[in-house]
Records
---
Amino acid sequence: MMKNSKFPSLQYISFSMRHAAGYTGALIFLRLAQALMPAVQILTLAGLLDRAQEAFVARKFTDALYLSIFLFVGFILLDTVLNIISSYVRMKYEIKIGMEYDRSLLMKKSRLIYYLTEDQNTQELVSRLSEESAERMAKGLQNLLDLFEYGIRIAGVAVIVLTAHVGIGLAVMAIFAIMLPVAKKCGEEDYEAYTEADKQMRKAAYLQQVLGHRDYADERKTFAYTDKINEKWELQHDKGRKMSQAVTKKNFIHIKAASMLTVMLAVSAAALLLFPLRKGMMTVGGYVSIVTAIINLTKLMSWNLAYIIEDFTVCKEYIMDLLTFWQLPEIETDEKGKIMQSSREKIEKIVFQKVSFRYPGCENYVLKDMSFTLEKGNTYAIVGENGAGKTTLIKLLLGLYREYEGEIYINGREIRQIGESELFSYFSVAYQHFPRYEMSLRDNLVLGRADARGVSDEEIRKWVGLLGLTDCVKRLPAGLDTEIGRLEEAGQDLSGGEWQRVAVARALLVDGPIQIMDEPTAALDPIHESELFEKLISGETGDLHILITHRLGGIRNASEILVVQDGRIGECGTHEELLQKHGLYAEMFEKQKRWYV
Ligand code: ADP
């Protein structure tokens, strides 16, 4: 875990070291060597010019002149070679960091505690971090090294100028001090605007998706809303674009003003240095090499340094985001993100004891003092009106939220004492909002299995048959190995009902001892629906079955029906018992019955 530090940008070095230690070390060393080059240039050039002048006066080539020519040529060669090696190492570093950093971001994302995946701020943070993540990590390190390099370059030249003329040396440093806060402010404004513009752009991107994606095609046509959404998109896009343009313009003006100052410094330095030259306090070679170095340096300051300092602030904001992300709570087990073989433990009992729960950051309790017991061998149906808390109850049982009051026991063990992977291994779950994986049908079916590659065709076909998908598999050109979904050619997509049966089969193939089905028949036609209910209730797999549904006709044979009402179990019993009670269940059942008679 990373600690927040006083100089967050230094974390670019530790992140880079962690993912590409060799290349990062080499880059730091090379930059240090490159940073010393201007000072070396002044010394070798001054020596060369002075020796050349002496040779000119004496009209003969001296050994000292040969030596200074040798040193100066050596300097140019070394500078060129350092540049080439530096670019090569940089390229290798970027490739390495591209893979490693993205992988560690992904790992962290997968380990985040569940409620954060539903939290808007976290989602925005993750989206900001993931965009061009590797490039931004590499840019952050380069930026830091640029700053080190330029700092040393400036200091090197400043020291040499200071020895020639104290006032001019100080002026060089003063300009650096003036530019620093201006560029820093620009950088901060830039990042804020970038964050805001990014938000606007993401909204625009969503609208663009509504305008183009196949998922929206039917309603887009029948409701003819293209013009309306287009208008919204244009407004949204314009808003984001204008925001970033305004900041870029402002920064350009700031930076140009600062660079004018540095050009003035170069001119005045050249003029001022004439005085020590005339007084014989410095040689002609010294004068020419120092003025050349100052001109090079001011060019660097006016064109590069301002942008580098501005980028520094932008990179700092990125690393601060990264540090915040890195400190987000993770799931607590040792086996993070691993699929475990389904548990072979027999499930005897699940007990909810006075469980109360509210979502993080919410005031109202969704579950209130909820108590009930589920026992082995039975099929339980959970029913209730929308928003009553049925799905929340399942999320707690799955351990997705652990901040509840009261206790939840599986076989006498409180689930907070059970590691996440072990807990998951007890369940086969089909979610109400199931995903459609754009992969082969086989992958769609075995995705939840730890031994996905080893699942036999025979086993798959058993479940495919049970869920009435055999004809569907026959229709597909490559059978189970057909790539399905919308990315594929037309005709290889499944119907809504087929997708749902695939999701149920995927859950059943996991073969966990506790089976949970959340609205497993919502997309099915009545024939397939009643067949599926029969199979789920007869419970061919697992020790204990939980069915959440609105379709009351399908659960008449459930062992027990729990009616969730306002966060509590309002009533429970068999279908007949509940009808006798004339409570909410009886009312809901009568209403649904009236559709059919
Ligand atoms: P049901 O499954 O019975 O329709 P849920 O368990 O999904 O009901 O929801 C119960 C209540 O909890 C609802 O009022 C819903 O708005 C609220 N809720 C559900 N999920 C969240 C969440 N992630 N954050 C805040 N409130 C939520």
---
Amino acid sequence: MIGCGYLGAVHAAALASLGHDVIGVDSDGDKIALLETGAAPFFEPGLEPLLVQGLASGRLRFRRRLEEAAAAEVHFVTVGTPQRPDGSADLSAVEAVVAGLAGVIRTGALVVGKSTVPVGTAARLADVIVAAGGRLAWNPEFLREGLAVQDSLHPDRLVYGLAEGDASSEEVLDAVYAEVLREGMPKVVTDLATAELVKVSANAFLATKISFINAMAEIAEATGADVTQLADAIGVDARIGRRFLGAGVGFGGGCLPKDIRGFVARAEELGTGRSVAFLREIDAINLRRRERVVELARESLGGSLAGRRIAALGLAFKPDSDDVRDSPALAVAGMLADAGARVVAHDPAAVDTARLRRPDLDYTRDLGQALVGAEAVVVLTEWGSYRELDPTEAGSVVAGRRLVDARNCLDREAWAAAGWEVRSPGRPARLPLVARAG
Ligand code: UDX
């Protein structure tokens, strides 16, 4: 497994638990040192037990140098493809790994790309590997952060992209995934280009679905309608489905934003930019939602944020993760501070990762401390610990019972009943029951 980030570390541990001998390789010595002790370099529920189990069984090892994995029969490429300033994907890590593998692999070895790459990359890389006596296949990964272990052990589909005339790689991949295949999920065997596209188009579709409902939130805001009831009503239609119709502060993370931008950049290179031009709008809708949440906080504080004390609850791009890459939560906390608010930001897992990007914000790991004296509370990530907050208890420590539920994840009736004024994207304001009665 070449590359031990979110994807590689989880996949390495999962394959070891399925009975394979796995060597995880990463040039980052600190990461390898942690993994060798069974510690995950990032927050991912269920990963550490799997690492510990794999290391103890002797089937899982971590090394710094590619050469130490030279004898492997199958090499997975799981390095990152970050976004370049122009939106396109930076392939330098994938290209370096493939060039390195070409120098060390055994004749007949199978190199399997898992990284998300622009369509057309795999065919180019296949030439390098074939010239070195190996074969290359593409096997995109759909794992979700926070659920990565489950998604690796029980994926909902397997996609194999094979080069033209490659008659043997399917069998090798079937052997790798024998345990998983027994569960009977769909397996799609296709060409390299389709396999690359499956990954980006899946993420583009999910991003579109989220921005669709966020666009409806904008319409709801202009008309007094309620976007969550709208989502419930359209979501019961099985052709539409309720999942990924959660309106709020929008999507973030290491995949969705980067993948739609990379897709647009690649389509433009191919001369088919118009086909995915709508993804620019998807991106724009998504980014507008951050401003809207800042606006809701400003409105609830009577028109100005300057000098006001705000508890920002959540920094990670989603719960059960410490990932703040392109996180709407961290972005909004930063925007509130930039507008002059005195922000105290809390997250159960992402304070350290957030501090690296925004060292200037005030952080706390103590939820109570974030709430004490706050004039407004803004919930930015739907962590369980925020959903479980008792509105009466929380109300007794804040300086003002103003809540902005940017994820539409709290029971707004219960908060309003406890005297809170609740604002949330795409929904009419919920005034405290006391005030309404008065
Ligand atoms: C995503 C894909 O789901 C996964 O298949 C792929 O392999 C990697 O990218 P992930 O980045 O872990 O996974 O996050 P995901 O659960 O898809 O959520 C992405 C973002 O969308 C999060 O910021 C989340 O909060 C947001 N989201 C999700 C919404 O705003 N509304 C929703 O209804 C659902």
